[in-house]
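#onboarding

Welcome to the new folks! Below is a worked example of what a typical request in this channel looks like: someone posts a single protein sequence, and someone else replies with the predicted structure as tokens. Don't worry about understanding the tokens yet, we'll cover that in week two.

Example request:
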Amino acid sequence: MTSRLTRAAGIEYLALAVMFSVPTIQLSLAAEKPIPTTICDILAAPNNFQNKLVKVSASVKSDGTHFTMLIDRVCPKLGFTPQCPDTNPHCSGMAKIHGAVYKGHPGTIDKEVSGAFVGKVDIRAKGIPKWVIYIEDVSDLISTLKPE
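Example response:
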């Protein structure tokens, strides 16, 4: 008799746990949707985007060795350094960026590279680089040679 009551109580607790965890799971998935924005908007209000997942359309600028940035043509003087997240040091998004940047002559002096980038914003009070986006996805990446 006791084992039936214990088993019944266990099933009730399990049902309650599932019932209350499903909305939590749905909320956490909804919270992971990227915020569509621009690099200029992030630079104008950085505290609004710190540690947030964003989706931006941007151009890639790179010297082909030490410097790669995502910039917006509307505010091209500042931008974000794309990096892989610590949890995924060999992320496919950075591989896509590198593939476009190093195609032909390394860097973007001879080409225009642009696309849509999803990543988490990290604005550092100290350290270099100051403006970082941890790349989670890259899409619509286009690389076109500049006219000579």
